[in-house]
Amino acid sequence: MAPWSSDLMDCFQSVKPELESDFTPAAYNKLLNTLFPVNTPYTVFPQVHRHEEFTNVTARTTFTVYFKSTPVFLLDLHSYPTLSRISAREAADDHMRLHVRDLMPYCPLTTLHAVCAFGTRLAFYSASAGEAIHPARAPAPEQHQDSTPADWWDCDLLEDDGAIRLLIWVFLIHVAGIYLFTRGFLLTRLSLSNTSTCSEPNCGIVPTHKRAVLLIIDSLRFDFVSPNPPTPESPFHHNVLTLPQELTAKHPRHSFIFNSYADPPTTTLQRIKGITTGSLPTFVDLGNNFGGSSIAEDSILKQLKQAGKKLAFMGDDTWMSVFPDTFEPNMRFPYDSFNVEDLHTVDEGVIRHLFPLLEDASKPFDFLIGHFLGVDHVGHRVGPDHPSMKAKLQQMNDVLTQVVDLLEEDTLLVVLGDHGMDRSGDHGGDGTLETSAGMWIYSKGAPLTDPSPRVPGGLLQYKTFPGANSRHRSIQQIDLLPTISLLLGVPIPFNNLGTVIPELFWRGNRIQTLKKALEVNTVQIMKYLDTYRSSPSGGELDEAWQNIQGAWRATQNPGLSVDSELVTFMNFNRVALSACRAMWAQFNPVLMGLGLILLGMGLCASWAVYSGLWDARKEWDSWISPRLSHAVHVAAGGAISGIVGYFTLGPFTPGVAAADWAIFVGSLVSSMALITSSPPKMDFQTLKSIPVILLLHSVAFLSNSFTFWEDRIICFLLMTSLVPYVLTGISAPSTRLRYRILGFSLLFAVCVRLMATSTICREEQQPYCHVTFFASSSLPEPPRLVLYLSIPVAIALPLFFKRVLHITRADSGLAGTFLSLFLTPALLGGALYWIMEWADSAAVFGEEWAAPLRLSRTWVARSSFAWMAIVGIGLCLVVPLCLDIEVTTEGEKRQVKIVGYANAFGSPYLLFWSTSFALVYICTQLTGQVVLALAAIALVSFLELLDSVRDARGIQAAFESSTPSSVLNAAASLRLSPPIRFADVVPIALLGLHSFYATGHQATISSLQWKSAFLLTPTVTYPFSVITVVLNSVGPIFIFALAVPLVAVWNRAPLSTAEGQPAKDLDVQVKGESTLAALGVMIYYSALLLGTSFSAAILRRHLMVWKVFAPRFMAAVLELLAVDVGVLLGLGIGLERITWRVRTMFGARASTTAQTAQ
């Protein structure tokens, strides 16, 4: 319903409708006298009808509104509790029809409108001369059931707009599905930046080595180095890399081979973090420095660096992203790691720099890391059972042989795989083959263990590799970290959860050495857990804390035997590891499945509602209100059922809380209620309307190639979406429409293609992508052409808006003032800020100008942002219409013209939209500003194109209806013009995505433009830095979601003068079509989210899951939320304000018949 004044609403809300005797017509009396003031020719005549048996009880109250002495409106009021009685509804219907029939002969209007009210629930009646009263009575077969169903009174005076409630419902379903899926897929933990120290030198343990060489052979599965490989043996990867087993057999005190368990996700970046920090890294482990990818936690490299050691590196350049400043400048040699088809470049680069460092005493190192990639690339390209794998493993065997020959006796050699690979050569998941990595530790000099007597068996774990005939010694991969730390004499890193390898401390005074190592290890882990528990995320440990405390107390028991004491230390470490692993490092398929089901059902429900609204057309509000109310009611019951079901299903669904079940069941039954109440028709017309572009776009996420080339694909889809309009233009019934359709199509296509020339390349696109968003890939500054264009573009864009508005003469009034005095200065300020930022960064005027430029550009940005955010938006809300009055006098005849009338809804909404556009524009770098200007031109071009296409289709429909004369009737043309189709919002949805990519973004964290965080403040300041980064990142998506109502309101006049259509009716039509458009774009983005979620779930073991699929899923989440917020703000604030003002201005149409619309 329309927004009433607060005192009027208070009057209604103060009534107690549940008590019949308490209900009073005073609120309606006040409402009617507000709508028909006493200083007008209208008179409100109330009449009270008493109950036949109880004369002190009011049965009903009738209000008749007279214009002078003739009736024009009727309201029949009944008490709310009686609505549930069939007899009361039938009696009210009989009274209303009788009264309308009696008044109709005296009504001066062609149609008499009436309202039957039960409390605040309303049913609308109307009658025209010679026609039956609407709504019609129930057909005869239903007379014995209920001829006046309660859902006739489906409109509540106190309820919010059905459109907003519907969109909020869709938004909440999206949030529920995202929440559940994310809980099962994106693994999180708190990163602590504490650093370990030891009170004793070398932590009380004599180090065995001064230096170490750590060689990582990427994807080195355990069976590749196992002395007892599984059967049947493969000639391509079994007993090929034989040096480890040969030296272990020959020197058992100096050499050890382990089957190490690599915690999933089994990807290189995550395993590097695990190997160096001893923790269980997860995909969303952003650390303390959100803006970078470097490791903020304590690590062995950090400990060595603090100890004054020199660190060398060569190989996979991933190490440089996580440890950018750790290695010596003259001893670091990174190589690109992504080109899977290149089997040798990285390995040859490692070999080229490794041996000179081992041979050259003038370049001493203390810790050397070499990361070979050839085995991994062979696995991805051809799999492990291929001659190329045998050749690569033979090469690695030769390299290790030469390394051992060159190794000094004080240098420890560690060779390991960061993870394994499955049978096809891929990795990333938690399969046994993927998590089984080989590890070889070798000391050329000092022995690592004393084999007699043997280490207590309770400290050792063995595992049988799939297909093997015997067990082999097994450890956790993170056990390497505390082991190598103590062997080199540095503290164990603070976040470590690994346990020292007992064999390597079973030497000298064996029991005391091993006990001291385990004790230092245990104290370090307990200190970490205590710190984590006292952190904001400490509640995650609540469930396991009792077991952890029990295991810790066992280590403090002085009465244990020596062997038992060692076992209690080991047991505590493993209990702690198990507790943390349960929290952080496992997918929860149940939660992921529940989330996927919700996203899928929500999408189906949204499509069903979309189809139902499309069929309901003008009666959309009355169609959706009862269905939505029912869906909300069953959601409450479903949530309760979910909590009850938790106590039954809880034991079978670990990790799924009662709240999760309540959210899932409540949302599921709510979606199903909407689907069952509005099932879409399955006919040829429905099948024809299936959005093929959306289907192609959604399934493309199952391919990693399509995913990281999505920016190019969207451009193709956008151009494809124009084809139906071009075909319509070719066959348009008039030359003017043909030129307009083809001309605006061409302008739209040119803008889209120009936008596509702005690119930012993600790693996977190399070498087939060239950066154009910046001057070069290594120089993050705008291209010179963009610098020259930025100011002219900022001036030209408002002029373009004004020129388009001039087509319907909507460029006067507020439009002229706003575009000249508000939008233009804001855009110029945004361009000037980034020009000054470039001048500062490039030191164009020298270092002495840095401080003045910094201060000046900050105030320019603040002024521009505030000018638009406060003054501009405020002006659009206070004076929302772009109308002007022209009074002309010809002789004695005076004519009043409303200028801008033909676009009374669209022009003010364009100004409202441009306020948000300007805010995003200010937060966007110069190349992105030019792109956004092109996108805005494309948007307006599409609106004009769509308006002409509708005209053409309306005229064609008129001819096809065998009444070609109706083409000359404006009202009939409007009536025959087809409503919004789903295909009409597809270009808008794609334009938002195209703008996102063309403004320098990708579905990667590295593409975030952190410069925008300093737009309003010289340092990171919350919440301003967050706001500007968000606007920079998802702003393009948001503004095109906000623009969706323009599809419905562009070039839409308030009244249909030929038919005398009241303003309220067209208000309903505008809102209904705007709701369709908004729902359409929400459907598009929710389908993309479903596609990315599904691909991330089923491909969670894929090589690219954490590099491609998971980031795209996260981007889809942010995009959908931005769309939801955009359409809610657009319909709830922008369009609501405009339609209210239009309704207020044109509501009294009968008194303005002398006005001529132009």
Q: What would you call the shape?
A: elongated
Poorly predicted runs of 5 or more residues: 17-23, 53-57, 285-292, 970-976, 1056-1064, 1148-1158
- End-to-end Cα distance: 29 Å
Strand count, sense and barrel status of the largest sheet are: 9 strands, mixed
> What percent of the residues sit in helical stretches (DSSP H or I)?
40-55%
Strand order of the largest sheet: 10-9-11-7-12-13-8-15-14
Estimate the mean pLDDT confidence. Answer: 84
Helical segment tally? Answer: 36
Helices and strands: which structural class? alpha/beta
Per DSSP E runs of 2 or more residues, the count of β-strands stands at 18
Radius of gyration (CA) equals 37 Å
Strand content: 5-15%
Structurally, how many domains make up the residues? 4
Short key terms for the protein model shown above:
1158 residues, disordered C terminus, tt1808, chain A, Alkaline Phosphatase, subunit A, six-stranded mixed sheet, nine-stranded mixed sheet, 4 domains, alpha/beta
How is this fold's topology laid out?
Layout: H1 6-13, H2 26-35, E1 42-50, E2 58-67, E3 70-78, H3 86-103, E4 111-118, E5 121-128, E6 155-156, H4 162-185, E7 211-217, H5 243-250, E8 255-261, H6 268-277, H7 300-306, E9 311-316, H8 318-322, E10 332-335, H9 345-359, E11 367-372, H10 374-382, H11 387-406, E12 411-416, H12 432-435, E13 436-443, E14 461-464, E15 471-476, H13 480-488, H14 510-533, H15 542-555, H16 562-584, H17 589-616, H18 620-649, H19 658-677, H20 684-688, H21 692-699, H22 704-708, H23 710-721, H24 723-730, H25 735-756, H26 784-805, H27 814-841, H28 850-878, E16 884-890, E17 893-899, H29 906-922, H30 926-960, H31 970-976, H32 986-998, H33 1024-1042, H34 1046-1049, H35 1063-1098, H36 1105-1146, E18 1155-1157
Parallel strand pairs: 3-4, 7-11, 7-12, 8-15, 9-10, 9-11, 17-18
Antiparallel strand pairs: 1-2, 2-3, 4-5, 5-6, 8-13, 12-13, 14-15, 16-17
